[in-house]
Amino acid sequence: MTASTPTLQVAPMPTVAEIRKDFPILQQEVHGHPLVYLDSTASSQKPVQVIEAMDEYYRTIHANVHRGVHTLSEAATTAYEDARLKVARFINAPSTKEIIFTRNTTEGLNLVAYSWGRANLKPGDEVLITEMEHHSNIVPWQLICEITGATLRYVPITPRGELDYDALSQLLNEKTKVFAFTAMSNVLGTINPVAELVARAHAVGAIAVVDGAQSVPHLKTDVQALDADFLAFSSHKMLGPTGIGVLYGRKEILQAMPPFLGGGDMIREVKLSGSSWNDLPYKFEAGTPAIAEAVGLSVAIDYLNQVGMDWITEHERQITAYAWEQLQQIEGLRILGPDPERRGGLLSFIFGDIHPHDIASILDMQGVAVRAGHHCAQPIHDHYGISASTRASFYIYNSLDEVDRLVAALHQAKDIFSF
Ligand SMILES: Cc1ncc(COP(=O)(O)O)c(C=O)c1O
Questions:
Q1: From the CA of 61, how far away is ligand 1's center (Å)?
Q2: What is the residue with the minimal CA distance to atom 12 of ligand 1?
Q3: 134 lines ligand 1 (CB under 6 A)
Q4: Which of 82, 172, 238, 328 is a good FRET partner for 410, with 20 to 30 A between their CA atoms?
Q5: Residue 398, ligand 1, Cβ within 6 A
Q6: 186 lines ligand 1 (CB under 6 A)
Q7: Is the pLDDT of residue 3 over 50?
């Protein structure tokens, strides 16, 4: 190292206590108890940096994007396009043309099903999804199969909550045109081997569509290493605002696809006799986009990068392993899904005969926020012969103490129902 080489400044690892100071919403009490927020799988909380960036955007540079030459419009356009670049780098996409801003994961998956599906599927073709999908990766495929006459098939799950790989080998064949699957189940926590599943799809000539709603916020994502054709995810689950999501798509495939929605911004030219389409990614972004939300998402990515995705994954692994140990010891409680080594930061469970809504209400009285219901994944619950479960999920700002609060509140629920 020469004398002029600057010294590398390595930022110290954050502590959860420091991170929590950035989240105003976590400072409050609920029913007289400090809030324990264990519902980040449904939607994460937002750091003050994201909230202030969106506020600042509206105070200083808001105007519509792409359409004006005035100063504010140019500033808003720059902020919006910078956010796209930030997203591309975050998932290692080769080009910003492959980053389409959507409203959320659901819209991204619908875009692929409708645009790609209508152009490419026909009777005799098969679409393969799995039984562990969120409804947003089931219903669009059901709809498009009805329209095109293609057949929808499902990879079953094992009693441990993992994909049945023997069945997959049978179901994935030369008739399969699309294999769409979640990278991480929002009920079972199962982390699927995305790169391997993508390779298996490609081996039979199918495209691979990955639902990254639960993986991108928690695991370092590299779309080039995964080789996925599409990856959809939502800003609101990764510290960003609601109202914006991302669809990554391989350029060659996106270029060949017809538009999804028609309107302003997505056209090159409109004549009464017909229209032609804008370049990527604008061809798939009809109408005024979520500009302030893109700014918020960009700052959320900065925040995740600063803390470090590896730190986040390891932090959640430790909390989940601890929570797993603690919950296993509660008599009458059954956790759904695989062991901690093969799952992400969430635990869904059933607890005796207590209805999950009752559990969630009792926990709420202790200030502990968990989710109860089918979590938009009814087929998983059908698989286990139940209609609902209770889910505790962990993120960057949760601590082991909060797991202890969850456990204490569950003991209270047990006392109330005295079983
Ligand atoms: C695995 C998975 N896929 C898709 C979605 C849908 O996300 P959104 O409601 O943001 O579109 C969710 C939301 O919980 C999810 O967990």
A1: 31
A2: 213
A3: yes
A4: 238
A5: no
A6: yes
A7: no
Q: Counting every residue, how long is the chain?
A: 419
The answer to whether residues 356 and 378 belong to one domain is: yes
> What's the pLDDT tens digit per position in 262-306?
999 999 999 999 999 999 999 999 999 999 999 999 999 999 999
Q: Give the residue-averaged pLDDT of 94-105.
A: 98
Task: Say yes or no: CB of residue 211 within 6 Å of ligand 1.
Answer: yes
Residue nearest to atom 7 of ligand 1 (CA): 105
Domain boundary among 252, 287, 305: 305
Cα 77 to Cα 61: distance, rounded to the nearest angstrom: 10
Report the CATH number that the domain containing residue 215 is assigned in CATH. Answer: 3.40.640.10
CA of 212 to the centre of ligand 1 (A): 8
Which pLDDT band, with edges at 50, 70 and 90, does 13 fall under?
A: confident
> Which of 249, 271, 305 delimits the end of a domain?
305
Q: Which residues are catalytically annotated? A: 376
Stretch 213-242: mean pLDDT: 98
Within a domain: 336: yes
Ligand 1 atom closest to residue 108's alpha carbon, by position in its atom list: 11
Q: What is the pLDDT of residues 63-82, one digit of tens each?
A: 999 977 999 999 999 999 99
* Domain-located, residue 225: yes
* CB distance 176 to ligand 1 below 6 Å: no
CB of residue 213 inside a 6 A radius of ligand 1: yes
Encoding tokens for residue 404? 């202890």
pTM of the full structure: 0.96
Three-point CA angle 237, 84, 292, nearest 5°: 65
Say whether both 248 and 122 belong to one domain: yes
Residue 371's contacts (CB-CB under 8 Å, 6 or more residues apart) are 39, 41, 42, 360, 390, 391, 393
- pLDDT greater than 50 at residue 4: no
For residues 18 and 365, give the distance between their C-alpha atoms in angstroms, rounded to a whole number.
Answer: 27
Counting the structural domains of the chain, the total is 2
Rounded Cα–Cα distance for residues 206 and 187 (Å): 27
Q: Quick check: helix, strand or coil at residue 76? A: helix
pLDDT in tens, 398-416: 999 999 999 999 999 999 9
Choose which residue among 231, 234, 389 to substitute to test ligand 1 binding: the one with the highest number of ligand atoms within 8 A of its C-beta. 234
